[in-house]
Structure formats: C-alpha cells, structure tokens
Specification:
By secondary structure, the chain is mainly α. It folds into 2 domains: about 55 residues, no CATH class; about 220 residues, no CATH class. The protein contains 14 helices and no strands. The N and C termini lie far apart (about 55 Å).
C-alpha cells in the first residue's frame, strides 16, 4: 500500500519537530526566523553527520540548531567562492576548445565543418549537444547575436559563438564527442592528458551545477571520481578522489593563471579559518595538511 506523503508543517511545528528529534535550540525566535527563509529539508541535510544512527531521526546529545545553521552558512559561502573560480575555468575552456577545434576542422570554405556529424567520434553526444543548442536558440530568439546569424548565415554560427550558448555540462559533452586525435591536440596545448581533461571537465560541470543550484556540498560525496594521478593518490593516501577536496584540487590544476591559483588557495584558507570551530575538515575530504597537498 502506498503511504501518504508527509503532512506540511507550519514553521512553529517544524521547530517542535526538531525539538522532538532532540536538536538543541538556543534562541527559538531566531530559529523560527531562519526556518522562514531556509527550507527545513535543506537545514536537516547538515545534520546527517550528527544522527544517533544512520537512519535515525534523533540527533546526538548536544547537537544544536545553531551548529547546523553555521554549517549551512559555511556551505553557502564556499559555494559562492568556488563558483567564481569555476567560471574562470569555464571561460578559458570555452575559448581554447572553440579556437583549437576550429583551426583543426574549419580551415576551408564555408568554415562550418563543426556542424558536420562525420567530424565527431561519439555522434550521439554531438547530436545531443546540438539539439540542446537549438533549444537554447529558441529560448533566446530575441538575442541580437542569434538574429544576426539567422539573417546573415542562415542560422549557422562559428564555434566560438556556439560555445557561449552551451552550458558547462554540454561543453564537457561536446569535448567528449570529438575524435581522440582532436581531443589530444586541445589537451596537449593545455598540458594535460586528454582522458584527464575529459574527467576534469565532467567533475567541474558537476560541481558547478551544485554550486549554481545551491545544493549541499558539505559532507557529501562526488561522482565521477577525480583523476588525480596514481602517484599523487599513492603519496597522499588520505585524499579521497570522490571528495570535495579532490574537486578543489581539480580547480587548482585547471585555473589558467598563477595569480588565480594563489587567490584560490588564499580564499579557501580564509573561509575554512572563519568557520574552523564549526566544521570538520574530514566532512569535506580535506586532509590536515591540505594547504600543502592542494598545490603540489
């Protein structure tokens, strides 16, 4: 028999439910204000590591509402910070992939060979990306860029225009649709193996989506596992390649400028320092010596 969904609760009832679950509430009036703007379900996600048992609703003695809210604030600040650097990488990869592939394939008139499905190894991925592109064009039909290319080029666009309309996820799929030889040309110029670049783009698109959609990244595992190199993982065996730290290591590796790398590490250090009394480094997969390990 299918059960009823859970009954909706008022904010006051939500607070009572948390108290029934043995969560310590310091300032009830302040807690109610927080529940009015922060989904109960989202907040409870930060308490998963503080339950008596894995599937229990009861919190360990001493666990407070205020602690869960601090973890949410840390998570929120970290997501916003990471997104800033993810966008830098995204812009860089859009530029390099579009330019390098165009110079490989689009050297002869009419310079539209990036539309030819025969220029792609994983044709189903190419088709998926270009179907998504058409939807994006339909959704933005009033765009001056789209109107210009519809009128002058019968709707076709150079690849460096197309990539600006693709999500990071679709950019990753696009790269993975290429022949290995073409992927290798692009990756070699970035100083990375093409299989590693494919993995890193996939990982970064996952993290970007989580950050952009306010999904919890604290105390969470990530897939796919990050390709960080066998020797690296062997030397630093407390690094888990499905952790937030592993994904942050990818950000560090893929940032194009040394200044960006330094700013990234400095910013991470500051955020972690600000919340050091509330967070547990192991819950984000950060080893104790993470400052050294992230930048080696």
């Amino acid at each position: 028999m299918i059960k009823d969904l859970k009954k909706p609760l008022t904010y006051e009832e939500q607070l009572e439910k948390l108290k029934e679950h043995k969560l310590k509430i310091g300032d009830e009036a302040k807690a109610l204000k927080i529940l009015e703007r922060l989904n109960y379900y989202k907040l409870s996600g930060y308490g998963l590591g503080f339950r008596n048992e894995k599937y229990s609703d009861l919190y360990k003695p001493g666990t407070s509402f205020e602690l869960l809210y601090e973890l949410f604030l840390f998570d929120e600040e970290l997501r916003i910070f990471l997104l800033k650097f993810l966008l830098k990488i995204e812009i860089y990869l859009r530029t390099r992939i579009a330019n390098d592939f165009s110079l490989i394939k689009c050297k002869e008139s009419p310079y539209d060979q990036h539309y030819d499905i025969e220029n792609y190894y994983r044709k189903e991925k190419f088709q998926e990306v270009f179907n998504s592109l058409e939807k994006e064009k339909d959704n933005n039909s009033d765009s001056l860029v789209i109107k210009h290319h519809d009128k002058k080029y019968n709707g076709k666009m150079p690849l460096w225009v197309i990539v600006e309309l693709l999500s990071f996820s679709n950019l990753s799929k696009y790269y993975n649709s290429l022949f290995e030889s073409d992927k290798k040309v692009i990756a070699d110029k970035l100083g990375v193996a093409h299989k590693v670049l494919s993995n890193h783009m996939h990982c970064l698109s996952v993290l970007r989506n989580k950050c952009a959609h306010s999904s919890r990244i604290y105390n969470n595992d990530f897939a796919p596992p990050a390709k960080l190199g066998r020797e690296y993982l062997k030397k630093y065996n407390d690094v888990f390649n499905g952790s937030l730290f592993a994904y942050c290591r990818i950000i560090y590796l893929r940032l194009p400028e040394e200044k960006d790398k330094k700013d990234f590490v400095k910013g991470l250090k500051n955020i972690i320092s600000d919340y050091e009394e509330s967070i547990n480094l192991s819950d984000i997969g950060f080893p104790a010596d993470w400052l050294k390990v992230i930048s080696v």
